[in-house]
Amino acid sequence: MTTLVTGGAGFVGSHLCERLLAENHEVISLDCYDDFYDPATKRDNLAQCREHARFQEVDGDIRDGSILAALPDVETVVHLAARAGVRPSIQNPVLYNDVNVGGALSLLEFARERGLRRFIFTSSSSVYGNNKVVPFSENHSVDHPISPYAASKKAGELLCHTYHHLYGIGMLCLRLFTVYGPRQRPDLAIHKFAHLMQSGEPIPMFGDGSTERDYTFVDDTLQGLLGAIRFLDQNPDAFEIVNLGESRTVSLTQMIDTLARTLGVTPQIERLPMQAGDVVRTYADITKARYLFGYDPHTEFEKGVKRFLEWLNDHPS
């Protein structure tokens, strides 16, 4: 099977490319290497993949129809590419709409034109907004996003349903919950805070520290992604929206304490007001993922943090 992974040089995408190659897939990574963070870091992420004869790397934008038209035949699309981050989306909503919604539409058109039957779209826990019912179930309303990023992910899910309905493309929309681990983007809290603690700089803590996130170790997210690919192989007519989280919450205060304890430092805290677009908590109900493809996350937060810091020590830049 040949699998196209958009955003293949990113945090989750590069790990997925490696796993697919290990399972004997032909893999095409499509990434535009934008400057959201250092493109050299993303290129380094694919170093192991380049050693495989079954790997092809394409440098290009998902919105560029000529790039998509030139791609070889593929059987499955895993669409990970997106402009990421809640706060940056508030500063530049037009760009986020263009990339996240327009880019998703370009790829869905690519799938329609090629007659593909398997398409996986990575959505986000942010679509739940400040849902007061926890844990978050796929049956809950997601009609009240509180950031342009969240709205763009909800729009992507709606487009996926439309293309499934009109053209019979098998679709899974996977709502990812705060993925962390080796290669995590440097702007995300665990990575950013670890660097600040190591350099003795203050940690910006937005709010009183009680906000909660369902931190999901990257290996567990990958287990879900691979399970989703196998599910679509067996159910090519399916359309499902599925949570991929750890189904455990960690408060901001607990996250900072865990990092500090593991690093053996005393953190300096800079207390700041809550930021626009930030949700109070994320917390995944993963019953559906367990039922559909045996999803079974099991990485405890402290163990995951330790594995991330071991990687960070080997990649100090």
Explain briefly what this protein structure is.
By secondary structure, the chain is of the alpha/beta class.
Show the helix and strand layout.
Layout: E1 2-6, H1 11-22, E2 26-31, H2 39-45, E3 55-59, H3 65-69, E4 76-79, H4 86-91, H5 93-114, E5 118-124, H6 148-167, E6 170-176, E7 179-180, H7 189-198, E8 203-206, E9 212-213, E10 216-217, H8 218-234, E11 239-244, E12 250-251, H9 252-263, E13 269-272, H10 287-293, H11 301-314
Parallel strand pairs: 1-2, 1-4, 2-3, 4-5, 5-6, 6-11, 7-10, 8-13
Antiparallel strand pairs: 9-12
Helix pairs in contact: 1-8, 5-6, 7-9, 9-11
Side by side, the strands of the main sheet go 3-2-1-4-5-6-11
Order of helices and strands: EHEHEHEHHEHEEHEEEHEEHEHH
> Low-confidence spans: pLDDT under 50, at least 5 residues?
none
**DSSP helical segment count:** 11
Distance, first to last CA: 36 Å
Which CATH C-level class of the domain at 2-180 and 216-246 and 284-290 is it?
Alpha Beta
- CATH homologous superfamily of the domain at 2-180 and 216-246 and 284-290, by name? NAD(P)-binding Rossmann-like Domain
The name CATH uses for the topology of the domain at 2-180 and 216-246 and 284-290 is Rossmann fold
CATH architecture assignment name of the domain at 2-180 and 216-246 and 284-290: 3-Layer(aba) Sandwich
Portion in beta strands: 15-25%
Number of beta strands: 13
Helix vs. strand class: alpha/beta
* Biggest pleated sheet: 7 strands, parallel
Shape, principal axes of CA atoms: globular
Percent helix range = 40-55%
Summed over residues and divided by their number, the pLDDT gives a mean of 96
Rg from alpha-carbon coordinates: 19 Å
